[in-house]
Write a structure and sequence with these properties.
The protein is mainly alpha-helical and about 400 residues long. It has four domains: about 120 residues, no CATH class; about 150 residues, no CATH class; about 55 residues, Winged helix-like DNA-binding domain superfamily/Winged helix DNA-binding domain (Arc Repressor Mutant, subunit A); about 30 residues, no CATH class. About 50% of the residues lie in helices and about 5% in strands. Strands 3-5-4 form a three-stranded antiparallel sheet. Strands 1-2 form a two-stranded antiparallel sheet. Helix 8 crosses helix 9.
Length: about 400
């Protein structure tokens, strides 16, 4: 495609941008000039060029991003902001494809944070630094270190390892859950969980200023890794934290209680590969949501709505077949656990645990009230013989319990 004399083979995990810079350097060209030529090339010419060697997994996706940049707020690839591991550059002298991923902020090989500034002059590095692995401002070699590199935290390191594994040609997707996600799908899930974790009050679209920069990416990678490496417990903790942060006494609606993450889970993550996220959310609602669920909710399953424990007193009476007045008396006597839900209009609604009411209802089957018990005492025995009469009273004694006082 370029008609160059020297065409070195790319490394199996080499960055496309890094290879273009290395190719330019081998032929005495300016790196930016070759990158511009690649961006303006026809798709067919690029496909033919790729067919001459076996390109790394990322090149097809990165090629599209270079030639037709997407407008998404949180992109999979951060191509404008360069980052690197000085130890890797010193050992292998090429830029790795995973360093271009937005949520990769650590080096899995050396266990340190990636860098995006020149150790000599602290200027942020750009594409030009990839040509000779040196700072374009001061000429400092990026393979040398004059300061200690911070160690990677466990959450960001987990995020890096998970994404790197999916870029390997030998990686095999699992059948379900996180193991079934590609690196692009994992990025989509991770970025949404991360943004909702660090911006719990935000109801705006998924936007984070400077998300491609290493400084911001570190926060996002750490937040996402914290949730995903401890799935599903940490996800449930996140849901509880989001609800607590938004609690204002009127959080009986799921949309108002959980904010944007509720839409993320059921609308923006609607692909079948994210079914396990929705399933875990419904499990959380079943266990922890102590308010009524709307029967018209189109996101929750019918079973979750029907089996939900917390309902109004009127609904509890209908579901159990008991009189409403009787349910109210149980509530007033403290036999039923209840919650008070405030509507935006100011109206208040009492809800009770229908599962507990069902248990009480089962225990009351066969019970008699005081008037019925009195009638049983006055019922004559069928036999006039004394032994038969004693046996009848003995049998009746066990039939009286339990006796209701209502």
């Amino acid at each position: 495609m370029f008609g160059l004399l020297i065409n070195p083979q790319p490394q199996s995990d080499e960055s496309l941008l890094g290879y273009l810079q290395r190719l330019a350097g081998a032929n005495g060209l300016a790196g930016d000039e070759l990158i511009k030529a690649f961006e303006q090339a026809e798709a067919g010419d690029i496909a033919v060029w790729f067919s001459r060697f076996e390109p790394p997994v990322s090149w097809s996706s990165v090629s599209e991003e270079l030639r037709k940049p997407k407008t998404k707020a949180l992109k999979v690839w951060s191509l404008r902001h360069k980052r690197y591991c000085a130890c890797c550059l010193a050992e292998s002298a090429y830029w790795k494809e995973t360093w271009d991923l937005t949520l990769v902020t650590t080096c899995s090989l050396h266990g340190v944070q990636l860098q995006d500034r020149c150790p000599g002059c602290s200027v942020k590095i750009n594409h030009g630094a990839m040509l000779a692995n040196s700072c374009k401002s001061c000429g400092y070699l990026l393979t040398e270190q004059i300061v200690e590199i911070p160690a990677a935290d466990s959450h960001s390191a987990w995020m890096t390892t998970a994404l790197e594994a999916r870029l390997s040609k030998n990686f095999k997707l699992g059948n379900s859950g996180l193991d079934a996600l590609t690196y692009e799908q994992l990025h989509v899930l991770s970025s949404r969980l991360a943004v909702r974790s660090v911006r719990s009050e935000s109801t705006k679209p998924l936007k984070v200023a400077g998300s491609g920069s290493l400084e911001v990416s570190r926060h996002l990678a750490q937040a996402a890794g914290q949730v995903l490496m401890n799935w599903p417990r940490a996800f449930r903790d996140l849901l509880s934290d989001l609800r607590d942060a938004r609690s204002d006494g009127k959080d009986w609606k799921l949309t108002s209680a959980f904010g944007s993450i509720y839409r993320d889970i059921h609308h923006d993550l609607e692909a079948p590969c994210f079914d396990f996220v929705r399933s875990e959310f419904e499990s959380y609602v079943k266990d922890a949501w102590q308010a009524p669920l709307s029967k018209r909710n189109r996101y929750l399953s019918e079973k979750t709505i029907q089996d939900h424990r917390w309902v109004s007193i009127e609904e509890a009476a209908r579901l159990t077949g008991l009189l409403r007045s009787f349910v109210e008396r149980l509530h007033d006597h403290g036999e039923l656990e209840s919650r008070e839900i405030a509507h935006s209009s100011g109206r208040k609604l009492k809800v009770v645990d229908v599962a507990l009411l069902r248990e009480l209802s089962l225990r009351m089957q066969g019970s008699v009230n005081m008037r019925q018990a009195a009638k049983l005492r006055m019922r004559p025995a069928k036999s006039s013989t004394q032994p038969r009469k004693a046996k009848t009273w003995c049998a009746l004694k066990f039939k009286w319990a339990p006796v209701l006082a209502f």
